[in-house]
Structure formats: C-alpha cells, structure tokens
Design brief:
Helix content is 39%, strand content 19%. The longest helix has 15 residues. The chain folds into 2 domains: 82 residues, Orthogonal Bundle (Chemotaxis Receptor Methyltransferase Cher, domain 1), CATH 1.10.155; 158 residues, Rossmann fold, CATH 3.40.50.150. Helix 5 packs across helix 6. It is an alpha/beta fold and 284 residues long. It has 11 helices and 10 strands. The N terminus is likely disordered. The strands form 2 sheets. Strands 6-2-1-7-8-10-9 form a 7-stranded mixed beta sheet. A 3-stranded antiparallel beta sheet has the order 3-5-4. Bound molecules: S-adenosylmethionine. S-adenosylmethionine (SAM) binds next to loops.
C-alpha cells in the first residue's frame, strides 16, 4: 500500500482501493491472460473513469459488482477493450518482414510451397491491422505477381474495437506517410480529407476476426507462419508457455513463429529453432 500512498485513487472522483483493483485485475487476468501489476492502478483508473461516469456509478466497487453480475455481462467486452494496449505501426520490427520475403515467400514456387498451392499466415494480436497489412504488402510486393497461390492472412485480436478498425482498412495520414510515397500510392487510395483506404487487392487477402488467444481456436491450420508480437509481453510465464505450444501444434513443419523484440519463448526449444532475432522455426 505504501508505494501507492501519494497517488492512490481512493481520494479521487471514484474511490478505488487496492483491494478492488486486485479484484478487477484478477478478473481481467482470468479472462485475457493480461497481467495488471499493482503499479498500473492509475492507468486502469484513468481508462475506466469515463465509463463509470456514463453508467452513473459512484465507486469502482459498484462497477466490479456490475460486470460480475448476469445483467453486466455485456460490459466485459467494454472493460477488456479499455484495458488492452494496442500500440502498433506499419512494418514495426521491419526485419521480420524482410525475413518473411527472403524465406517463406521466396520459397514459393508457381506451384506453392513444396508442391502446395496454399499459404496461410496468422497475425495473432493484430491490433488495428498495421501488422497484417504489412504482411499483405510484403506478399504483394515480392510474390503475388509470380506465384499462383491461395493466400490467406488471418488477423485476430481480443479487442473488438481494433478488429473493426483493421477491417475498415482506413488509416490516418500520419501513419500512412511513414510508409513513404511509393507504398502509399501502391497500396492505398485517398479517403476523405485526411484518411487513406487500403486497396481491395490487400484487403481481400485478410480476414479479421475477434479471438481471445486463451479460448478454443476455431481454425485448424496448418499455418506457414504465425506473427504473435508484443502480445505475450502482457502474459505470465505459464500462459506464454501454453500459447507457444498451441502455436507449435498449429504450424506446419518448418513453419515460422515471429515474436516481439522483448519476448522470448521458454520451454519449447526442442520444438523451435532460433533462426534470427525473435524468429523461430518449427522442426521439420
Ligand atoms: C501492443 S499490441 C501488438 C500489435 C501488433 N502485434 C504489433 O506488434 O504491432 C497487443 C495486442 O494484443 C491484444 N491482446 C491482448 N491479450 C489478448 C488475448 N488474450 N487474445 C488476443 N489478443 C490479445 C491486444 O488487444 C492488443 O491489440
């Protein structure tokens, strides 16, 4: 308690004790795998205060009772959306896209990989879509004109609001400007005064779906590559280990797993070989 004494939000507009915070964070952890340590209490407070005002609650205790009750079940989606961290950008950690182009995509023959005519890539924890669109741009730029391949990119996230934004394919001028003029005009068209719309050739490669990585997965795979970057950073070690094992089960032999720059995989060194910084390959 002492560490929070100067900033503890008990004295703010909505009382929020450490006990209530831990109740809320345990609930979110159970549903999403996201760990919310005590020092994030102020962040959680600020992300939820507007919602408490809208619902006309006067304490966090009332809010916790509400989303835990049968009448408040729909509130859980709002709560989770509010507490996810969605930071992303096009071609973030560019070396992964270079690796994809130089390995998986350059291996595609006109008959597909190893005689197969199907390429499946999963962006797991895709946020607002910059990651799957970067994969799609890489595919269009390096492979699409030379291969006849049934290519699909699955883009999933637990946060329904970011999935909707990714699916819309609309981005602000600033984030698209970072791509440079060549890519901007090749893959986007101007939309309204200040936005850009992803062109249909890219959009048709991607299916956006809401999916909690902790739940059962409806897809059977196999995937040739899985991007799960800057997602597991929020999970505890047992959750990470289970997830990486499930990725291994869904990858084709020789398939690739790309993880975030500050992440490692823990117990699966026998299943995966490290092939580059944060790039793993499943054994064949
Ligand atoms: C920081 S963003 C990373 C986006 C992108 N992968 C990148 O590296 O730029 C993390 C994303 O993971 C999602 N996420 C967190 N927990 C999740 C879960 N249990 N299932 C699915 N997605 C989750 C969040 O909603 C968020 O959009």
């Amino acid at each position: 308690m002492a560490a929070l004494s100067t900033t503890a939000p008990e004295h703010r507009e909505f009382p929020f004790t450490l006990k209530e915070y831990r109740r809320l964070s345990a609930f979110v952890h159970g549903r999403t795998g996201i760990t919310l340590p005590d020092h994030k209490i102020n962040m959680v407070y600020s992300r939820l205060t507007r919602r408490l005002r809208e619902l006309e609650f006067s304490t966090f205790a009332e809010y916790c009772d509400y989303y835990s009750s049968p009448e408040g079940e729909d509130e859980i989606e709002y709560l989770i959306n509010a507490l996810t961290t969605n930071l992303t950008r096009f071609f973030r950690e560019k070396h992964h896209f270079d690796h994809l182009a130089e390995n998986l995509l350059s291996d595609l023959s006109t008959d597909g990989i190893n005689g197969r005519t199907r390429l499946r890539i999963w962006s797991a924890g895709c946020s607002t879509g910059e990651e799957p669109y970067s994969i799609a741009m890489t595919y269009r730029e390096t492979a699409a004109s030379r291969v006849q391949c049934d290519t699909r990119i699955l883009a999933t996230d637990i946060d329904s609001s970011v999935v909707a934004r990714g699916s819309s394919g609309r981005y602000g001028g600033q984030s698209v400007a970072e791509l440079g003029k060549g890519r901007r005009y090749r893959h986007f068209t101007a939309f309204g005064g200040s936005e850009w719309q992803v062109r249909p050739e890219l959009r048709q490669l991607i299916a956006f779906k809401q999916l909690n990585l902790l739940d059962a997965w409806p897809m059977k795979g196999p995937f040739d590559a899985i991007f799960c970057r800057n997602v597991m950073i929020y999970f505890d070690n047992p959750t990470k280990a289970r997830l990486v094992q499930r990725f291994a089960d869904l990858l084709a032999p020789g398939g690739w797993l790309y993880i975030g720059h500050s992440e490692t995989i823990l117990d699966q060194k026998t299943v995966f070989r490290l092939r580059g910084p944060t790039i793993y390959q499943k054994g064949t």
